[in-house]
Records
---
Amino acid sequence: MMRLLLVVVVVLLLLVLDVASSAALVGETCSSSSSCGTSSSGGLRCTSCIPPPGTGPAVCARTTPIDPISSSLPFNRYSWLTTHNSLAVVGTKSPIGSAIISPPNQEDSVTSQLNNGVRGLMLDAYDFNNDVWLCHSFNGKCFAFTAYQPALSVLKEIGAFLESNPSAVITIFLEDYTAAGSLGKVMAAAGLTKFLFPVEKMPKKKEDKWPLLRDMIAQNHRLLVFTSKQGKEATDGLAFQWTYVVETQYGSDGLAQGQCRNRGESRPMDSKAQSLVLMNFFTTNPSQSWACGNNSSPLVTKLKACYQASANRWPNFIAVDFYMANAPFGTYDMRRTPSPSPSPSAFAAAAPPKTSPSPAPSSIMSSAASRRQVSEREGATTTIAPAASSSSSINNQRSFLPAFILMGLLVLLL
Ligand SMILES: *[C@@H]1O[C@H](CO)[C@@H](O)[C@H](O)[C@H]1NC(C)=O
């Protein structure tokens, strides 16, 4: 039972994208990533993802979601790009010398993922070798051949990213096999304690609210950690995931279109006592070509089903394998491919009610022909969203699409 992990995410780059606008655009053919603009400035890379991978023409594809720009909404009004098994990176060798037998789920390191806008990380934690290790294992036990990294080194990477990105907010979902006290200790050793969003401030009842993203940033409460193991709130200061999060079925069982059921540990998707919604979208056996074909319109279709199943709430965390995989020339960028990609307006239609202050995604997704146009539209968008007055009124409109980041994700994946 190799299984899951967790985690979370968001954002960066619209402004930067704009700066890079002299480089090639999304969807243009390319020979190297530098012709798309460097990934650090443009968020683009040259890739071919028409299944099977590598067989289609290479085009510039986006690897980074769009920066929401506004941080004036409550935390649970954003959607964060989340990597499933964030650490199971192609070609990894365990530092203890064993070849890892677990199949990879991602293509690049956690630091690279964070640089590319991933803000949710799913990790499996085990007591191993007298320490806490991140493994992708089975039967609740870590082995040399499933042990990716000591948790400390990865947590330090996360800490370094938080230090150098003062407005980044990261969420970690731990599939937790450690004993009480292990994780709290290693988090402290990694210097993460000061960033932790305090468990006692997390909404525990329907009436409780998440703070505004900007207030979390101002208070430096920029790391949320959820564990699958009960009892860690008292011993390690880590939130028990199922108190706060509803989560969809994972693996291939969770892929059926037109429905969106919860995984066994989670309360039903429409349970409002949990204020965060996590949608899994990946196969049981990780497959890059599957991701190439399905991290696109099928993902949007699933989002819609989950929106409805989750009492009109968009997923806050969208967990995928091979987050950089999408299908250039097909559905990866709806702004440039009017058809046969899914209709953005169909997506918008499932989105916010007319009374919502949310910008309609369609106004942004519709056929903008260049990044600059999109940027301008995004710019207009930001002036709309913060107009929603008080945080409580925003909170009360849960059906509001967490538009900014979701759009970022769509740009990334579609
Ligand atoms: C997309 O997912 C479906 C359902 O899992 C699968 O049958 C199909 O082959 C996938 N597409 C690709 C290109 O892998």
Note: The domain at 14-413 is CATH 3.20.20.190 (TIM Barrel).
---
Amino acid sequence: MAVTLDNYFVPGWRDATYTCAACEWQGSARQMPMELHEDEAQFDCPQCENPILLVVHPSLAQVQAAAAEGHPEAIEQLDILAAAPRPD
Ligand SMILES: [Zn+2]
């Protein structure tokens, strides 16, 4: 069963140690191959490909809140959004 993280901007999740429920591999998200899905980023076990971590894409409200708290990545994302053409 994969761990779901519903706030992308929680500090430290990339460096936390996770254990694969299937083969007991241990490591951080930096060591796991990532698959991008529509609603989330999925990190798989590098040893047996079992999904270990699901990181839900941040909502605009989460990006704005994190940017307001000074999260550098959120500020960068807001800048990208501001530069993108409006969908409507
Ligand atoms: Zn595994």
Note: The chain is about 25% helix and 25% strand.
